[in-house]
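Closing statement on the 1-deoxynojirimycin sub-project.
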Amino acid sequence: MKHAAISWWQEGILYQIYPRSFQDSNGDGIGDISGIISRLPYLRYLGIDAIWLSPIFPSPMADFGYDISNYLGVDPIFGTLDDFDTLVAAAHASNLKVILDLVPNHTSDQHPWFIESRSSRDNPKRDWYLWREPRADGTAPNNWMSEFGGSAWSYDAGATQYYYHAFLREQSDLNWRNPAVRQAIYDVMRFWLQRGIDGFRVDVLWHLIKDSEFRDNPPNSNFLPGRPPHEALLPLYSTDRPEMLDVVTEMRRVVDEFSDRVLIGEIYLPVDRLVAYYGKDLSGAHLPFNFALLSVPWNARAIAMLIDDYERALPAAAWPNWVLGNHDRPRVASRVGHAQARVAAMLLLTLRGTPTLYYGDEIGMQQVAIAQDQVRDPFEKNVPGIGVGRDGCRTPMQWNGEAHGGFTTGEPWLPLADDYACENVASLSADTRSVLNLYRALIELRKATPELVTGSYAPVAATGDLLAYRREYEGNTLLIVLNLGADPISIGSDVMAFPGEILLSTNLDLTGETACGGLDLGGNEGLIIRLR
Ligand code: NOJ
Protein backbone atom coordinates (compact mmCIF):
# COMPACT_ATOMS: atom_id res chain seq x y z
CA MET A 1 0.00 0.00 0.00
CA LYS A 2 1.32 3.45 -0.83
CA HIS A 3 0.46 6.64 0.98
CA ALA A 4 2.42 9.34 -0.76
CA ALA A 5 1.82 12.02 1.82
CA ILE A 6 2.26 10.23 5.08
CA SER A 7 5.34 9.36 7.08
CA TRP A 8 6.54 6.01 8.35
CA TRP A 9 5.65 6.93 11.93
CA GLN A 10 2.08 7.60 10.82
CA GLU A 11 1.44 4.46 8.83
CA GLY A 12 3.77 2.23 10.84
CA ILE A 13 3.35 0.23 14.01
CA LEU A 14 5.71 0.88 16.92
CA TYR A 15 6.93 -1.87 19.23
CA GLN A 16 8.52 -1.16 22.59
CA ILE A 17 11.39 -3.37 23.67
CA TYR A 18 12.53 -3.39 27.28
CA PRO A 19 16.11 -4.42 26.49
CA ARG A 20 16.83 -6.12 29.83
CA SER A 21 14.02 -8.56 29.17
CA PHE A 22 13.89 -9.25 25.45
CA GLN A 23 16.74 -11.65 24.64
CA ASP A 24 19.96 -12.41 26.45
CA SER A 25 22.87 -13.46 24.23
CA ASN A 26 25.68 -13.98 26.76
CA GLY A 27 24.11 -15.90 29.61
CA ASP A 28 24.25 -13.16 32.23
CA GLY A 29 20.48 -13.27 32.64
CA ILE A 30 19.96 -9.77 31.25
CA GLY A 31 18.84 -9.03 27.72
CA ASP A 32 21.23 -7.22 25.41
CA ILE A 33 21.68 -5.64 22.00
CA SER A 34 23.03 -8.79 20.35
CA GLY A 35 19.94 -10.55 21.64
CA ILE A 36 17.72 -7.98 19.98
CA ILE A 37 19.62 -8.39 16.71
CA SER A 38 19.03 -12.13 16.85
CA ARG A 39 15.30 -11.51 17.17
CA LEU A 40 14.88 -9.11 14.25
CA PRO A 41 13.47 -11.93 12.09
CA TYR A 42 10.73 -12.39 14.68
CA LEU A 43 9.88 -8.70 14.52
CA ARG A 44 9.60 -8.92 10.75
CA TYR A 45 7.40 -11.98 11.13
CA LEU A 46 5.20 -10.06 13.55
CA GLY A 47 5.01 -7.23 11.03
CA ILE A 48 5.83 -4.19 13.13
CA ASP A 49 7.72 -1.24 11.60
CA ALA A 50 9.77 0.38 14.34
CA ILE A 51 11.33 -0.60 17.62
CA TRP A 52 11.63 1.75 20.56
CA LEU A 53 14.29 0.69 23.04
CA SER A 54 14.05 1.66 26.69
CA PRO A 55 17.43 3.13 27.78
CA ILE A 56 20.61 1.27 26.83
CA PHE A 57 23.07 3.92 28.04
CA PRO A 58 25.69 3.60 30.80
CA SER A 59 23.84 3.67 34.08
CA PRO A 60 24.22 2.58 37.71
CA MET A 61 20.76 1.04 37.10
CA ALA A 62 19.13 2.51 40.19
CA ASP A 63 16.06 2.89 37.94
CA PHE A 64 17.17 0.32 35.36
CA GLY A 65 18.65 2.73 32.87
CA TYR A 66 16.43 5.75 33.49
CA ASP A 67 19.36 7.04 35.57
CA ILE A 68 21.96 7.80 32.91
CA SER A 69 25.60 8.42 33.76
CA ASN A 70 26.75 8.89 30.16
CA TYR A 71 24.39 9.93 27.38
CA LEU A 72 26.84 9.05 24.62
CA GLY A 73 27.56 5.39 25.18
CA VAL A 74 26.09 1.95 25.70
CA ASP A 75 26.08 0.21 29.06
CA PRO A 76 28.36 -2.88 28.97
CA ILE A 77 25.40 -4.92 30.22
CA PHE A 78 23.76 -4.30 26.84
CA GLY A 79 26.89 -4.38 24.66
CA THR A 80 28.97 -1.74 22.89
CA LEU A 81 28.46 1.19 20.58
CA ASP A 82 29.60 -1.10 17.78
CA ASP A 83 26.85 -3.55 18.70
CA PHE A 84 24.43 -0.67 18.59
CA ASP A 85 25.61 0.41 15.14
CA THR A 86 25.21 -3.19 14.01
CA LEU A 87 21.67 -3.21 15.36
CA VAL A 88 20.74 -0.02 13.51
CA ALA A 89 22.22 -1.33 10.26
CA ALA A 90 20.55 -4.73 10.64
CA ALA A 91 17.22 -3.19 11.60
CA HIS A 92 17.32 -0.82 8.64
CA ALA A 93 18.23 -3.68 6.34
CA SER A 94 15.06 -5.38 7.61
CA ASN A 95 12.99 -2.24 7.04
CA LEU A 96 12.69 -1.55 10.73
CA LYS A 97 13.21 1.88 12.24
CA VAL A 98 14.99 2.35 15.55
CA ILE A 99 13.80 4.81 18.20
CA LEU A 100 15.81 5.53 21.33
CA ASP A 101 14.73 6.68 24.74
CA LEU A 102 15.89 10.20 25.55
CA VAL A 103 15.94 10.95 29.28
CA PRO A 104 16.47 14.72 29.47
CA ASN A 105 14.69 15.51 32.73
CA HIS A 106 17.28 13.97 35.01
CA THR A 107 20.66 12.29 35.02
CA SER A 108 22.14 9.76 37.37
CA ASP A 109 23.74 11.30 40.44
CA GLN A 110 26.84 9.56 39.06
CA HIS A 111 26.79 11.57 35.83
CA PRO A 112 29.95 13.75 35.63
CA TRP A 113 27.71 16.81 35.25
CA PHE A 114 26.11 16.17 38.62
CA ILE A 115 29.35 15.17 40.30
CA GLU A 116 30.75 18.53 39.21
CA SER A 117 27.59 20.36 40.10
CA ARG A 118 27.53 19.08 43.66
CA SER A 119 31.27 19.60 44.16
CA SER A 120 30.91 23.27 45.15
CA ARG A 121 28.50 26.16 45.05
CA ASP A 122 30.60 28.05 42.53
CA ASN A 123 31.22 25.18 40.15
CA PRO A 124 30.27 26.20 36.57
CA LYS A 125 27.87 23.25 36.45
CA ARG A 126 26.16 24.24 39.71
CA ASP A 127 23.24 25.79 37.87
CA TRP A 128 22.81 22.73 35.64
CA TYR A 129 20.73 21.16 38.41
CA LEU A 130 18.10 22.49 40.80
CA TRP A 131 19.81 23.52 44.02
CA ARG A 132 17.85 25.41 46.66
CA GLU A 133 18.44 26.64 50.17
CA PRO A 134 16.70 24.82 53.04
CA ARG A 135 13.80 26.59 54.66
CA ALA A 136 14.61 28.51 57.85
CA ASP A 137 13.96 25.42 59.95
CA GLY A 138 16.33 23.36 57.82
CA THR A 139 13.61 21.40 56.01
CA ALA A 140 13.24 20.93 52.25
CA PRO A 141 12.68 24.08 50.13
CA ASN A 142 9.04 23.22 49.38
CA ASN A 143 6.48 20.43 49.62
CA TRP A 144 7.12 18.76 46.26
CA MET A 145 7.10 14.99 46.41
CA SER A 146 9.06 12.39 44.53
CA GLU A 147 7.00 10.12 42.29
CA PHE A 148 8.88 7.26 43.90
CA GLY A 149 8.00 8.19 47.47
CA GLY A 150 9.09 10.80 50.00
CA SER A 151 10.25 14.36 49.46
CA ALA A 152 11.56 15.29 46.03
CA TRP A 153 14.43 17.12 47.72
CA SER A 154 17.62 15.56 49.06
CA TYR A 155 20.01 17.42 51.31
CA ASP A 156 23.63 17.57 50.32
CA ALA A 157 25.62 18.07 53.50
CA GLY A 158 28.74 19.17 51.65
CA ALA A 159 26.94 21.90 49.76
CA THR A 160 24.42 22.61 52.55
CA GLN A 161 21.69 22.86 49.94
CA TYR A 162 18.94 20.62 48.68
CA TYR A 163 18.72 19.28 45.13
CA TYR A 164 15.49 18.35 43.40
CA HIS A 165 14.65 14.93 41.99
CA ALA A 166 11.22 14.13 40.63
CA PHE A 167 12.06 10.42 40.96
CA LEU A 168 14.84 8.73 42.95
CA ARG A 169 17.47 10.71 44.86
CA GLU A 170 19.88 9.02 42.41
CA GLN A 171 18.07 10.82 39.56
CA SER A 172 18.85 14.52 39.98
CA ASP A 173 16.74 16.82 37.79
CA LEU A 174 18.50 19.01 35.28
CA ASN A 175 17.76 22.74 35.18
CA TRP A 176 16.01 23.22 31.86
CA ARG A 177 15.90 26.99 32.37
CA ASN A 178 19.65 26.98 31.82
CA PRO A 179 20.41 27.36 28.09
CA ALA A 180 23.66 25.39 28.44
CA VAL A 181 21.70 22.36 29.67
CA ARG A 182 19.39 22.58 26.71
CA GLN A 183 22.28 22.77 24.28
CA ALA A 184 24.01 19.83 25.95
CA ILE A 185 20.94 17.63 25.56
CA TYR A 186 20.35 18.82 22.01
CA ASP A 187 23.91 17.76 21.24
CA VAL A 188 23.13 14.35 22.74
CA MET A 189 20.18 14.13 20.37
CA ARG A 190 22.38 15.06 17.40
CA PHE A 191 24.94 12.43 18.39
CA TRP A 192 22.38 9.64 18.09
CA LEU A 193 20.53 11.07 15.11
CA GLN A 194 23.84 11.28 13.25
CA ARG A 195 24.40 7.63 14.12
CA GLY A 196 21.29 6.91 12.11
CA ILE A 197 18.52 6.43 14.62
CA ASP A 198 15.04 7.34 13.51
CA GLY A 199 13.81 9.28 16.50
CA PHE A 200 13.28 9.58 20.21
CA ARG A 201 10.74 8.74 22.82
CA VAL A 202 11.28 11.48 25.39
CA ASP A 203 11.01 10.43 29.01
CA VAL A 204 8.63 12.46 31.24
CA LEU A 205 8.51 15.30 28.74
CA TRP A 206 5.96 17.26 30.77
CA HIS A 207 8.32 17.43 33.75
CA LEU A 208 11.23 19.36 32.26
CA ILE A 209 10.39 22.88 33.39
CA LYS A 210 9.49 23.66 37.00
CA ASP A 211 7.98 26.78 38.47
CA SER A 212 10.60 29.51 38.61
CA GLU A 213 9.48 30.41 42.13
CA PHE A 214 9.23 26.81 43.34
CA ARG A 215 5.83 27.42 44.88
CA ASP A 216 4.27 24.70 47.03
CA ASN A 217 1.98 22.31 45.20
CA PRO A 218 -1.65 22.44 46.35
CA PRO A 219 -3.29 19.46 48.08
CA ASN A 220 -5.29 17.03 45.95
CA SER A 221 -8.76 16.90 47.47
CA ASN A 222 -9.54 13.78 45.44
CA PHE A 223 -6.60 11.81 46.78
CA LEU A 224 -7.57 8.20 47.37
CA PRO A 225 -6.02 6.11 50.11
CA GLY A 226 -4.00 3.29 48.59
CA ARG A 227 -2.72 5.49 45.80
CA PRO A 228 0.98 6.47 45.60
CA PRO A 229 1.77 9.17 48.19
CA HIS A 230 2.86 11.83 45.68
CA GLU A 231 -0.71 11.94 44.40
CA ALA A 232 -1.68 13.67 47.66
CA LEU A 233 -0.55 16.88 45.94
CA LEU A 234 -1.52 18.29 42.56
CA PRO A 235 1.72 18.75 40.60
CA LEU A 236 0.65 22.23 39.53
CA TYR A 237 4.02 23.92 39.96
CA SER A 238 6.36 20.99 39.38
CA THR A 239 5.14 19.84 35.95
CA ASP A 240 3.50 21.02 32.72
CA ARG A 241 4.57 24.64 33.05
CA PRO A 242 3.69 27.04 30.23
CA GLU A 243 7.36 27.41 29.24
CA MET A 244 7.39 23.71 28.24
CA LEU A 245 6.04 24.51 24.81
CA ASP A 246 9.18 26.42 23.84
CA VAL A 247 11.29 23.49 24.92
CA VAL A 248 9.29 20.98 22.89
CA THR A 249 9.52 23.23 19.87
CA GLU A 250 13.28 23.48 20.28
CA MET A 251 13.58 19.70 20.55
CA ARG A 252 11.51 19.31 17.43
CA ARG A 253 13.82 21.69 15.60
CA VAL A 254 16.76 19.48 16.48
CA VAL A 255 14.94 16.42 15.18
CA ASP A 256 14.04 18.34 12.03
CA GLU A 257 17.71 19.01 11.30
CA PHE A 258 17.58 15.40 10.09
CA SER A 259 15.14 14.04 7.57
CA ASP A 260 12.25 11.78 8.39
CA ARG A 261 12.79 11.38 12.15
CA VAL A 262 10.15 11.25 14.85
CA LEU A 263 9.73 12.95 18.22
CA ILE A 264 7.49 11.11 20.67
CA GLY A 265 6.70 12.42 24.13
CA GLU A 266 5.94 10.44 27.26
CA ILE A 267 3.21 12.57 28.80
CA TYR A 268 0.68 11.54 31.42
CA LEU A 269 -1.79 14.42 31.37
CA PRO A 270 -5.51 14.88 30.81
CA VAL A 271 -6.33 14.99 27.12
CA ASP A 272 -6.76 18.78 26.85
CA ARG A 273 -3.25 19.32 28.21
CA LEU A 274 -1.77 16.34 26.37
CA VAL A 275 -2.63 17.72 22.96
CA ALA A 276 -0.84 20.99 23.76
CA TYR A 277 2.40 19.04 23.26
CA TYR A 278 1.74 18.84 19.52
CA GLY A 279 2.86 22.47 19.77
CA LYS A 280 1.70 25.61 18.07
CA ASP A 281 0.96 24.78 14.43
CA LEU A 282 2.21 21.24 15.13
CA SER A 283 5.71 22.48 15.84
CA GLY A 284 6.10 20.20 18.89
CA ALA A 285 6.07 16.45 19.36
CA HIS A 286 4.89 14.40 16.38
CA LEU A 287 3.28 11.98 18.80
CA PRO A 288 2.52 12.95 22.38
CA PHE A 289 1.90 9.44 23.68
CA ASN A 290 -1.77 8.85 24.33
CA PHE A 291 -1.99 6.58 27.39
CA ALA A 292 -5.76 6.81 27.87
CA LEU A 293 -6.29 3.10 27.22
CA LEU A 294 -3.93 2.18 30.06
CA SER A 295 -6.28 3.40 32.74
CA VAL A 296 -9.78 3.50 31.25
CA PRO A 297 -12.39 1.32 32.99
CA TRP A 298 -12.64 -1.54 30.51
CA ASN A 299 -16.19 -1.11 29.27
CA ALA A 300 -17.62 -0.07 25.93
CA ARG A 301 -19.19 3.18 27.03
CA ALA A 302 -16.11 4.47 28.82
CA ILE A 303 -13.87 3.57 25.88
CA ALA A 304 -16.27 5.09 23.32
CA MET A 305 -16.28 8.30 25.33
CA LEU A 306 -12.53 8.49 25.63
CA ILE A 307 -12.02 7.94 21.90
CA ASP A 308 -14.51 10.72 21.17
CA ASP A 309 -12.86 13.05 23.69
CA TYR A 310 -9.44 12.39 22.20
CA GLU A 311 -10.58 12.77 18.59
CA ARG A 312 -12.33 16.01 19.51
CA ALA A 313 -9.35 17.41 21.38
CA LEU A 314 -6.80 16.75 18.61
CA PRO A 315 -5.64 19.90 16.84
CA ALA A 316 -6.41 20.00 13.11
CA ALA A 317 -4.00 17.74 11.19
CA ALA A 318 -2.44 16.36 14.38
CA TRP A 319 -1.74 12.65 14.02
CA PRO A 320 -3.29 10.51 16.79
CA ASN A 321 -1.69 7.56 18.53
CA TRP A 322 -2.68 4.81 20.97
CA VAL A 323 -0.75 2.80 23.53
CA LEU A 324 -1.97 -0.42 25.16
CA GLY A 325 0.97 -1.31 27.37
CA ASN A 326 4.37 -0.20 28.55
CA HIS A 327 7.07 -0.97 31.09
CA ASP A 328 5.40 1.11 33.81
CA ARG A 329 1.86 -0.24 33.78
CA PRO A 330 0.27 -3.66 34.43
CA ARG A 331 0.10 -5.96 31.40
CA VAL A 332 -3.03 -5.61 29.30
CA ALA A 333 -3.79 -9.35 29.50
CA SER A 334 -3.99 -9.02 33.28
CA ARG A 335 -5.82 -5.69 33.27
CA VAL A 336 -8.63 -6.86 31.02
CA GLY A 337 -8.29 -10.66 30.98
CA HIS A 338 -7.17 -12.92 28.15
CA ALA A 339 -10.45 -12.92 26.23
CA GLN A 340 -10.71 -9.14 26.25
CA ALA A 341 -7.01 -8.80 25.43
CA ARG A 342 -7.91 -10.03 21.95
CA VAL A 343 -10.61 -7.39 21.67
CA ALA A 344 -8.10 -4.83 22.91
CA ALA A 345 -5.69 -5.88 20.16
CA MET A 346 -8.35 -5.30 17.53
CA LEU A 347 -9.19 -1.96 19.09
CA LEU A 348 -5.55 -0.83 19.12
CA LEU A 349 -4.97 -1.84 15.51
CA THR A 350 -8.17 -0.39 14.10
CA LEU A 351 -8.26 2.99 15.81
CA ARG A 352 -7.11 6.05 13.90
CA GLY A 353 -3.50 6.79 14.70
CA THR A 354 -0.16 5.12 15.27
CA PRO A 355 -0.39 2.05 17.52
CA THR A 356 2.36 1.18 20.00
CA LEU A 357 2.69 -2.42 21.15
CA TYR A 358 4.60 -3.46 24.24
CA TYR A 359 6.84 -6.53 23.84
CA GLY A 360 5.12 -9.70 24.94
CA ASP A 361 1.59 -8.33 24.79
CA GLU A 362 1.33 -9.98 21.38
CA ILE A 363 1.71 -13.37 23.09
CA GLY A 364 -0.65 -12.47 25.91
CA MET A 365 2.05 -12.17 28.56
CA GLN A 366 0.59 -11.56 31.98
CA GLN A 367 1.56 -9.45 34.91
CA VAL A 368 3.79 -11.79 36.90
CA ALA A 369 3.48 -11.87 40.69
CA ILE A 370 6.89 -11.08 42.13
CA ALA A 371 7.90 -12.54 45.49
CA GLN A 372 9.06 -10.05 48.07
CA ASP A 373 12.68 -11.16 47.89
CA GLN A 374 12.73 -10.86 44.11
CA VAL A 375 11.49 -7.28 43.87
CA ARG A 376 13.86 -5.18 41.78
CA ASP A 377 11.81 -2.07 41.05
CA PRO A 378 12.84 0.89 43.24
CA PHE A 379 9.28 2.27 43.12
CA GLU A 380 7.97 -0.89 44.80
CA LYS A 381 10.85 -0.88 47.28
CA ASN A 382 10.17 2.72 48.30
CA VAL A 383 6.38 2.49 48.27
CA PRO A 384 5.68 -1.14 49.17
CA GLY A 385 2.41 -2.95 49.47
CA ILE A 386 0.02 -0.89 47.34
CA GLY A 387 0.73 -2.59 44.03
CA VAL A 388 2.88 0.00 42.28
CA GLY A 389 5.63 -2.51 41.42
CA ARG A 390 6.64 -2.58 37.77
CA ASP A 391 8.67 -5.78 37.75
CA GLY A 392 5.60 -7.82 36.89
CA CYS A 393 5.27 -6.22 33.46
CA ARG A 394 9.02 -6.40 32.76
CA THR A 395 9.56 -10.16 32.96
CA PRO A 396 11.56 -11.96 30.27
CA MET A 397 10.06 -12.54 26.85
CA GLN A 398 8.70 -16.04 26.48
CA TRP A 399 10.25 -17.39 23.30
CA ASN A 400 9.85 -21.14 23.65
CA GLY A 401 9.27 -23.97 26.12
CA GLU A 402 12.92 -24.45 26.96
CA ALA A 403 14.56 -23.40 30.23
CA HIS A 404 13.75 -19.77 31.04
CA GLY A 405 11.63 -19.58 27.92
CA GLY A 406 14.67 -19.37 25.66
CA PHE A 407 15.38 -15.92 27.06
CA THR A 408 18.69 -16.81 28.69
CA THR A 409 20.96 -19.73 29.39
CA GLY A 410 21.76 -18.15 32.76
CA GLU A 411 19.59 -17.02 35.67
CA PRO A 412 17.05 -14.46 34.44
CA TRP A 413 17.14 -11.12 36.27
CA LEU A 414 13.39 -11.44 36.87
CA PRO A 415 11.36 -14.65 37.02
CA LEU A 416 9.31 -15.75 34.02
CA ALA A 417 5.58 -16.30 34.15
CA ASP A 418 4.62 -19.80 35.31
CA ASP A 419 2.85 -20.46 32.03
CA TYR A 420 5.83 -19.82 29.78
CA ALA A 421 6.15 -23.48 28.78
CA CYS A 422 2.81 -23.20 26.94
CA GLU A 423 2.43 -19.50 26.28
CA ASN A 424 5.42 -18.67 24.16
CA VAL A 425 6.29 -17.50 20.67
CA ALA A 426 7.10 -20.99 19.38
CA SER A 427 3.90 -22.64 20.54
CA LEU A 428 1.63 -19.71 19.74
CA SER A 429 2.99 -19.27 16.25
CA ALA A 430 2.09 -22.91 15.58
CA ASP A 431 -1.45 -22.41 16.90
CA THR A 432 -3.45 -20.87 14.06
CA ARG A 433 -5.97 -19.25 16.42
CA SER A 434 -3.52 -17.88 18.96
CA VAL A 435 -3.36 -14.30 20.13
CA LEU A 436 0.00 -14.03 18.35
CA ASN A 437 -1.59 -15.01 15.08
CA LEU A 438 -4.40 -12.57 15.78
CA TYR A 439 -1.84 -9.77 16.17
CA ARG A 440 -0.15 -10.86 12.95
CA ALA A 441 -3.44 -10.94 11.08
CA LEU A 442 -4.45 -7.53 12.42
CA ILE A 443 -1.10 -6.02 11.50
CA GLU A 444 -1.19 -7.53 8.03
CA LEU A 445 -4.74 -6.34 7.45
CA ARG A 446 -3.91 -2.87 8.71
CA LYS A 447 -0.99 -2.61 6.32
CA ALA A 448 -3.08 -3.73 3.37
CA THR A 449 -6.08 -1.54 4.15
CA PRO A 450 -5.90 2.23 3.68
CA GLU A 451 -9.17 2.68 5.57
CA LEU A 452 -7.41 1.50 8.74
CA VAL A 453 -4.38 3.72 8.32
CA THR A 454 -5.50 6.92 6.66
CA GLY A 455 -9.24 6.57 6.93
CA SER A 456 -11.43 8.88 8.95
CA TYR A 457 -12.91 7.74 12.25
CA ALA A 458 -16.62 7.96 12.98
CA PRO A 459 -18.30 6.59 16.07
CA VAL A 460 -21.41 4.45 15.60
CA ALA A 461 -24.12 4.84 18.24
CA ALA A 462 -24.35 1.71 20.37
CA THR A 463 -25.38 0.62 23.84
CA GLY A 464 -24.33 -1.87 26.49
CA ASP A 465 -21.17 -3.82 25.76
CA LEU A 466 -21.00 -2.92 22.09
CA LEU A 467 -18.32 -0.56 20.85
CA ALA A 468 -18.72 0.26 17.16
CA TYR A 469 -17.06 2.66 14.76
CA ARG A 470 -16.41 3.20 11.10
CA ARG A 471 -13.20 3.89 9.27
CA GLU A 472 -13.69 5.43 5.83
CA TYR A 473 -11.31 6.18 3.00
CA GLU A 474 -12.12 7.27 -0.54
CA GLY A 475 -15.69 6.07 -0.33
CA ASN A 476 -14.86 2.67 1.18
CA THR A 477 -16.10 1.88 4.64
CA LEU A 478 -15.07 -0.55 7.31
CA LEU A 479 -17.18 -1.18 10.37
CA ILE A 480 -15.51 -2.37 13.53
CA VAL A 481 -17.73 -3.98 16.15
CA LEU A 482 -16.24 -5.01 19.47
CA ASN A 483 -18.04 -6.90 22.20
CA LEU A 484 -16.61 -5.76 25.52
CA GLY A 485 -18.71 -8.28 27.41
CA ALA A 486 -19.01 -12.06 27.65
CA ASP A 487 -22.58 -12.34 26.31
CA PRO A 488 -23.39 -12.48 22.58
CA ILE A 489 -24.82 -9.36 20.94
CA SER A 490 -27.11 -9.26 17.90
CA ILE A 491 -26.01 -6.61 15.47
CA GLY A 492 -28.97 -5.12 13.65
CA SER A 493 -29.49 -2.63 10.87
CA ASP A 494 -29.32 0.23 13.38
CA VAL A 495 -25.60 -0.45 13.69
CA MET A 496 -24.78 -1.84 10.29
CA ALA A 497 -25.96 -1.53 6.71
CA PHE A 498 -26.09 -5.09 5.38
CA PRO A 499 -24.51 -6.88 3.62
CA GLY A 500 -20.97 -6.80 4.87
CA GLU A 501 -17.95 -8.97 4.36
CA ILE A 502 -16.16 -10.06 7.50
CA LEU A 503 -12.47 -9.34 7.02
CA LEU A 504 -11.35 -10.56 10.41
CA SER A 505 -12.73 -11.92 13.65
CA THR A 506 -10.79 -11.90 16.90
CA ASN A 507 -11.53 -15.64 16.94
CA LEU A 508 -9.77 -15.97 13.57
CA ASP A 509 -12.61 -18.12 12.23
CA LEU A 510 -14.96 -16.07 10.06
CA THR A 511 -12.69 -14.49 7.49
CA GLY A 512 -14.40 -14.02 4.15
CA GLU A 513 -17.94 -14.74 5.34
CA THR A 514 -20.70 -12.38 4.33
CA ALA A 515 -23.22 -11.09 6.85
CA CYS A 516 -26.48 -10.56 4.98
CA GLY A 517 -29.42 -9.71 7.18
CA GLY A 518 -28.20 -9.90 10.76
CA LEU A 519 -25.09 -10.71 12.66
CA ASP A 520 -24.36 -12.39 15.96
CA LEU A 521 -21.30 -11.10 17.68
CA GLY A 522 -19.98 -13.65 20.15
CA GLY A 523 -19.02 -12.78 23.71
CA ASN A 524 -15.56 -11.19 23.82
CA GLU A 525 -15.53 -11.08 20.05
CA GLY A 526 -14.56 -8.32 17.67
CA LEU A 527 -15.09 -8.11 13.92
CA ILE A 528 -13.76 -5.97 11.13
CA ILE A 529 -16.39 -5.78 8.41
CA ARG A 530 -16.20 -4.29 4.95
CA LEU A 531 -19.50 -2.65 4.08
CA ARG A 532 -20.70 -2.83 0.51
C1 NOJ B 1 9.26 7.28 33.05
C2 NOJ B 1 9.79 5.92 32.71
O1 NOJ B 1 8.92 5.32 31.80
C3 NOJ B 1 9.91 5.16 34.00
O2 NOJ B 1 10.20 3.81 33.78
C4 NOJ B 1 10.97 5.83 34.83
O3 NOJ B 1 11.07 5.19 36.07
C5 NOJ B 1 10.64 7.30 35.04
N1 NOJ B 1 10.24 7.94 33.83
C6 NOJ B 1 11.82 8.03 35.56
O4 NOJ B 1 12.77 8.19 34.53
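The two ends are 21 Å apart (CA to CA). With this model delivered, the sub-project is considered complete and its resources will be redirected to Aim 3.
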